[in-house]
Predict the structure.
Amino acid sequence: MELVHDPARNRVGPGALNHLVIGVEAMHDTIAQLGARGVHAKPPSSPDGCENFWTTWLTDPDGYRIELVQWPPGTPTA
């Protein structure tokens, strides 16, 4: 999990967080499992066009954005 903070804001609160990032091992499987539970996510895309780096977005019931990321193997954040 990664919290993305806007350093231009002095205080860290819900408004200072840009979005929440959660790493997943298999994006397409995760999207299918979420969909089976009634959770809608945007179609995943690959930021650099490779077959093993995927991102997608969903929104929680309070309106906060959540990014799911499948990092490529060997990425330090993976």
Residues 31 and 78 are 18 Å apart (CA to CA).
